[in-house]
Amino acid sequence: MKKIDNTTRYERLRERMGNGDIDRRSFFGLLGAAGITAGVSGGMMTAMTTQARAMGKELHFEGWGGVVSEALREHAFNPYEEATGNEVIDATFGGESEVLTKVKAAGNTSGHNILHSSGVTWYKRWVDSGYNVKLNLDNIPNMQYVMEAMIEPFRAITPDGLSAVPYDYGTTGIAYNKKYVSEEKARELGADLLLDKELKGKIGGWGGDWANRAWYGALQTGQDPNNIQDWDAVWDKAREHRDLVLKYWSSGAELMDLLAKEEIYVTEAWSGRVAALQAQGHPIGYIDPPNGLAWMETMFVLEGSPMEAAEELLNFMLEPETAIAVAVGQKYPPSLDPTKVDMPEEVKNLPAFDPTGELEGLVFRDPAKWNTVEKEQSKMWNRVQKGA
User: Which CATH architecture has domain 58-169+295-360?
Assistant: First the structure.
């Protein structure tokens, strides 16, 4: 019998994958088996693997940076790349409006595949803009573990098919440095802590989202954020806050840096970023004021993406072991239903974690209320931010 050398073996496997006879995962399994059987090591196997991986798909991912990106890279992207031969090219944004502006300006979604997207309001915005897809959930069997309470709001917008999978949730509460602000004072003032004149020059705020500023303006004027009646009063509070602010931060990484270096003592903040600071030993307290803002995030797939590769990545990310590792790393509870998946104590102790899987105690933005006023009210925030 003619002996088949390793190069021939590799070329035949590569040809079979190119013809669609085997998928990438099987290819790498067989490639590895061939290398072990033949005793191949060192440069030849490395070269073969490098060539093979060049045949994989590229997926462009955009997210929030800092500890979130680090957790996704370590626990999701690196293992996915190793398992599939695909490459995840991840980048950071300060807000999804940046991405939407780029996509509209380019007239296509080239270079934009999956977004770590900000929940229901942004889901509807991407859908209304025509950039959504219809995921084949048969390729994402781990969706069975996701909370129905997180799926339903998205299914209500696109009943014929989802363009995203829910991935995590949290709250935007108020962070404060316990060296300078007592817990008693923080809880007594609630949302008004952001307007404490004694802290002028040591207050921060997120400048990247008009709706965040409006939500807190509603709380500070005693209004239901999902039923604002007096917008003038809301923006008056935003002006009051602006005059006390040292800096508006634009990313989670910047938020953490400002708090860690004690450049600011008080700011609204994302629960997971505060948990990360606390884990690092910083004396940062955190409260969710009454009717404080809760949110859920998705992995949203944009039109024009390589669908099978994207679905494979989403399923990989929802694997309980992976999703829990990412949750512990980024400090946000996963979308997995805790009545279906056993959660470790590190997840159960995260801010906003709901052991029931129902999320009934959290207040989310109503897209029917917020998206309809965005055009007008976002302009108002731009004016206020610039000093009007």
Answer: 3-Layer(aba) Sandwich (3.40)
